[in-house]
Design brief:
By secondary structure, the chain is mainly β. The protein is 0% helix and 51% strand.
C-alpha cells in the first residue's frame, strides 16, 4: 500500500493550493479517504473526509467554506483544494486511507 501526497509549498495568506494523494495497493474506490494535518507542537487533526462515491464529505470547523475535498476513483487520487489560506493552516498535511498514512506534504502560509 502506498499513499503519496504532493502539491504542498509556500503560499501567501489568502492564496490557494491543491494537494493530491495518489493511492495504490488497495481498492481505492471502496474506502473513505481523509486528509489530516499536524502543526508544530500540536496533535494531528482531521481536516476533511470523503465517502467512497465522492458524495458526502465532512470538514473541520476551522476549514469549512475554504477547503474542498474531492476524489477521482479512476485515478485512485484524492484531492484537497485549499483556498483563502491563513497562517494557522501551516502544517504537514497527510492523507489516510485503508488504515495507512502517506508521508505528508508541508504547507506553509506566510507573507
Amino acid at each position: 500500500v502506498q499513499l503519496v501526497e504532493s502539491g504542498g509549498g509556500l503560499v501567501q495568506p489568502g492564496g490557494s493550493l491543491r494537494l493530491s494523494c495518489a493511492a495504490s495497493g488497495f481498492t481505492f474506490s471502496k474506502y473513505y479517504m481523509f486528509w489530516y494535518r499536524q502543526a508544530p507542537g500540536k496533535e494531528r487533526e482531521l481536516v476533511a473526509g470523503i465517502s467512497t462515491s465522492g458524495g458526502p464529505s465532512n470538514y473541520a470547523d476551522s476549514v469549512k467554506g475554504r477547503f474542498t475535498i474531492s476524489r477521482d476513483n479512476d485515478k485512485n487520487t484524492v484531492y484537497l483544494q485549499m483556498n483563502n489560506l491563513k497562517s494557522e493552516d501551516t502544517a504537514v498535511y497527510y492523507c489516510k486511507g485503508f488504515g495507512y498514512w502517506g508521508q505528508g506534504t508541508q504547507v506553509t502560509v506566510s507573507a
